[in-house]
Amino acid sequence: MSPTGIFFIALDNPGSRVQVCSAPAKAASELCCHSVRWEQRGPLPPAPPRASWPACIKSRATPDTNLLPGKVVLAHFAQGCGRRGNPRGSPSSHASQASWCLEQQGKSERVTKQPQQFASDNYAGICPEAWAAMEAANNGYAPAYGEDDWTQRASDAFRKLFDSECEVFFAFNGTAANSLALAALCQSFHSVICSSSAHVETDECGAPEFFSNGSKLLVATTSDGKLTPRAIREVATSRSDIHFPKPRVVTITQPTETGQVYSIDEIRAISATCRALGLKLHMDGARFAQACAYLGCDPADITWRAGVDVLCFGGTKNGMAVGEAILFFDRALAQDFDYRCKQAGQLASKMRFLAAPWVGMLESGAWLRNAAHANGCAARLAAAIRDLPEVEPMFPVEANAVFLRAPAALLDGLRARGWSFYTFIGGGARFMFAWDADPARVDALVADIRAAGLAVADTAVAA
Ligand SMILES: Cc1ncc(COP(=O)(O)O)c(C=O)c1O
Predict the structure, then answer these.
(1) Domains of the chain from N-terminus onward
(2) What pTM was computed for the model?
(3) N or C, fewer C-beta in 10 Å, the chain?
(4) Which parts of the sequence belong to the Aromatic amino acid beta-eliminating lyase/threonine aldolase domain (predicted)?
């Protein structure tokens, strides 16, 4: 497929003729400018270094003094239509390819113009910083299987962020990251202690057991998803005979599946219990950034400094397309982990495209900005419905999730007003906010919750 490009363009004429500032007019005319997609969401990232511009632009590029923050927007162009092979199922002539590009643009706009939903933070697209880094990586050639500069840079960015010489690996998704990390800590006869609502227990299709060749999950029943030292001790000491799988690891989810954040002290207390019982501590950090944003702490304070051995740091739910990082703070535990990833189909051949978005996220600070924004939207919803008698938050709202207990008729009313949400945790409505959650849309949800609540109250009075 013809590559797409991100270029920095002047904001003088948005929507009509555009002036490409990072390249002179001739190069601009070779782009399919009619398929431009405007994007101006959140803070703009810095212009990518010239070395990363596509060759057709670079060769004609002139320095541009107009590239000032605030004067530029990101524009996504279909570039070089008809010159580098056809998109699958697309026509071959330049003109018809251009119209194919337009048609695709129209289709994607129809999808993105659907009103925003908060059923899952996986519904969101890719944030500009991750996208720009991916685009920059899409330039020429690079060694495969993680031997490239992007992978090195992303790994170093993690080491800097955590102030640790940790071992860093990348996997495509959270299920693989968790499962392989736990498998690295266990032998097949070991067991992993987790909360009853842990994603590894409820939503990974047995992958942790599968990848560890049978290590058993030992589930501690928790009312709110949080593990405690007491619950860990109870499970770990329940049996010690040869017939029972030997406890070896504790896994906690930070923030929990119910949107609560373990404090630094809580993690320290859990890790002290783990050490006393000879257990390793793994953290499922699918939304780790949201926990850091909530606590306002240094990432090291809730990981290795508090006794966490391995962290799975999620990118997908915070503005990336795919990609989770696995950080081994105890480097010895990472021995042969690269082979484990390869065997599980998690060693990306074009690793730079998994790593580059992390560079964009970590070096620009978007990882924390995005998370803070998502958390802020959850707090906004929670605060705005606090006075409603029919609706009750099921858990403290600390990260980017809000769980609402409400009468079935109210939830039906919300669905009838066009809102999507899941109720798989405790029957309440779950709303998840992503990096791009629109506060105006949050307010629209609040208005509809109020309207649905009033309708329920009116029906009760009439009856
Ligand atoms: C707590 C938690 N851990 C891990 C994951 C990763 O899942 P996936 O394999 O879908 O990326 C998720 C995704 O919803 C999650 O909520």
Answers:
(1) 4-114 (no CATH), 149-366 (3.40.640.10), 367-462 (3.90.1150.10)
(2) 0.81
(3) C
(4) 117-404
